[in-house]
Amino acid sequence: MRWFGMVAALALAGCGGEGGDAGNGSGAMAAAPATTPPPPACKVLEALDVATLLGGAPVLTEQTNIDNPQTALSQCIAQAGSRSASLQLRYDKGSPSPSAEQRVTMRASFDNKELYSFPNGPEAAEVAIGDAALWVGATGQLIIWHQGGRAQSIVTVDQPSARNRKDAETLARALVARYP
What we know:
The chain is of the alpha+beta class and 180 residues long. It has a domain at 36-100 and 139-179. The chain has helices at 2-12, 41-47, 50-54, 99-109, 162-178, and strands at residues 59-67, 71-80, 83-92, 124-126, 132-136, 141-146, 151-157.
């Protein structure tokens, strides 16, 4: 599955700095302050009502949950019947590059044939969500940067298609609204 390789590369993109605000992401699910990492991805998917998006009560499977002084990183997959969604959240507690710079770097990395096995690099379309966002059609992933580059989210809904892009955008807009 190509998207796991892209997820790993994206998880490391834009990391920088040291120390910083170290919120633990616990507490109420209301809009979180911009200096606090969001809760783990499975809790976020529950709070964003992924069940409605997927058309049934999902089974949530935590893939990653790391919280250290520099970065909080979590990933969750929600499966309901034949539909699925995954969410990866990365929060940089240090001094990250600005969102726009991270987007430009990510877009340029798509041309690196050593990183990606796409014949001409994956197509990436700009999306107006958060500070900056890219829809990567080849993998069906929506990458969102917000909080000035401190927060990066990757939303994947089912397999790549126009419908799934719309669903990913819906989930991403709810995410950015809830965790500004």
